[in-house]
């Protein structure tokens, strides 16, 4: 048994062009937690921060007007930040992107219970902000990335179709604008070749340029010729040295740890610690907790010492309230109501069985009529072969045996149906009031 409880929470922030991840490791002794809860129970006046988890509500992206303000058809470049977490796209002449959505695709399964008209109302493919409830289609999500490298070009094509459609680009099946597209650090040549082939042959763009988002951010914000870039993405983290304004490729280091690992770790940690709320704890809510309530420990060892103190814990602990839905309990039935309900269920079961028996009876009659007609006209070989093949019979002898079996079955079924319809409900007998004879009094009669 471990004497110390270690809770590791990794938080993940997104800036304009680069992503930064922060790590918060809290370590407290088990006794400290027990003392803290004892103090809180005995002193309810101690105030604690209480926050409610708000489920993210997404709105489908609109189709923007084309060409928009400051957009010159055939000249203004389209900038696409093709991240493995979010995809952002817009015009180079505008400061803010037009679109920002999760870079995933979902193919919901068709519900067989729904009618064709209702099923047609649900799109076969949902992309980005069209996915209203991502937890409902969590197992149908698809992405074009393997880690942070684009490998599934069929998914990438569908997402690009969605992107250009929502941007309003409509130019006879092509995109007459140069494109600036972000890619991962040291992207493999094969992946870049497939992406270029998709962009040029499928969309007919006039020009394509690649870049790394973190290097764009460094060049825009730092203004320093040499430095060190720590690019924390959704699936991987890169440490990129910059020397005299240029990246040193052979010194770049990659760590296979990113925002997805942090969210997944938080998700599993919460489910392990709070098994009662396992259904209420989802990946989306774990992500919201990391983005909203976690902080960065600038001095890890000092943070451990602080959180081991009861006073520091009381002042900084944060409580998060999960969405609560009051369970509606069914009303308790009385003994008479239970008896009546049981009788009603029995009556319905009898009706269902009777309906099935009638359907089977009608099918047997129809089959018997067909077989008898074929038996009477044995000279018509074409009709005979058709009947034998339809009812999967081997020959005339087999057909005649089936006719006898059907006649017996129809007779028995008719008897059962007639018996079920002629069942008379038992008449309730009224209680007879016993009275003495006219010539005797009650006392004499009782004696």
Automatic annotation (TrEMBL):
GO biological process assignments: regulation of macromolecule metabolic process
Pfam family, one: Actin
Origin: domain of life: Eukaryota
InterPro entries: Actin (IPR004000), ATPase_NBD (IPR043129)
PANTHER family: ACTIN (PTHR11937)
Similarity remark: Belongs to the actin family.
Name this protein carries in UniProt: Actin-related protein 5
Classification lineage: Eukaryota, Metazoa, Ecdysozoa, Arthropoda, Hexapoda
């Amino acid at each position: 048994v471990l004497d110390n409880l270690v809770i590791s929470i990794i938080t993940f922030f997104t800036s304009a062009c680069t992503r930064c991840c922060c790590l918060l490791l809290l370590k407290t002794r088990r006794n400290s937690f027990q003392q803290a809860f004892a103090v809180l129970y005995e002193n309810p006046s101690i105030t604690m921060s209480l926050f409610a988890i708000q489920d993210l509500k997404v709105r489908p992206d609109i189709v923007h007007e084309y060409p928009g303000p400051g957009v010159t058809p055939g000249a203004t470049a389209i900038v696409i930040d093709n991240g493995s977490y979010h995809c952002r796209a817009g015009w180079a002449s505008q400061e803010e992107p037009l679109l920002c959505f999760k870079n995933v695709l979902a193919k919901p399964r068709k519900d067989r219970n729904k009618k064709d008209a209702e099923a047609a109302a649900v799109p076969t493919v949902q992309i980005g902000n069209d996915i209203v409830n991502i937890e409902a289609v969590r197992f149908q999500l698809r992405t074009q990335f393997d880690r942070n490298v684009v490998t599934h070009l069929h998914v990438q094509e569908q997402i690009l179709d969605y992107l250009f459609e929502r941007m309003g680009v409509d130019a006879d099946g092509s995109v007459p604008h140069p494109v600036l597209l972000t890619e991962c650090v040291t992207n493999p040549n094969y992946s870049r070749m497939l992406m270029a082939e998709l962009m040029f042959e499928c969309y007919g763009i006039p020009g394509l340029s690649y870049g790394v988002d973190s290097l764009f951010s460094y060049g825009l914000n730092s203004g320093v010729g040499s430095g060190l870039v720590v690019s924390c993405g959704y699936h991987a983290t890169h440490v990129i040295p910059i020397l005299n304004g240029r990246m040193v490729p052979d010194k770049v280091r990659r760590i296979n740890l990113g925002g997805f690992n942090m969210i997944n770790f938080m998700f599993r940690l919460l489910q392990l610690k709070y098994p009662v709320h396992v259904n209420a704890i989802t990946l989306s809510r774990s992500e919201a907790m990391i983005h909203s309530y976690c902080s960065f420990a600038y001095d890890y060892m000092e943070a451990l010492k602080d959180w081991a103190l009861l006073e520091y814990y009381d002042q900084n602990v944060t409580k998060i309230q999960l969405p609560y839905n009051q369970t509606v309990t069914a009303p308790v039935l009385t003994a008479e109501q239970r008896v009546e309900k049981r009788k009603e269920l029995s009556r319905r079961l009898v009706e269902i069985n009777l309906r099935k028996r009638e359907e089977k009876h009608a099918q047997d009659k129809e089959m018997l009529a067909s077989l008898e007609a074929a038996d009477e006209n044995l000279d018509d070989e074409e009709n005979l072969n058709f009947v034998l093949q339809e009812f999967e019979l081997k020959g005339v002898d087999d057909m005649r045996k089936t006719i006898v079996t059907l006649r017996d079955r129809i007779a028995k079924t008719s008897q059962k149906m007639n018996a079920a319809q002629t069942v008379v409900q038992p008449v309730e007998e009224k209680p007879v009031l016993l009275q003495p004879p006219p010539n005797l009094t009650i006392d004499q009669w009782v004696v």
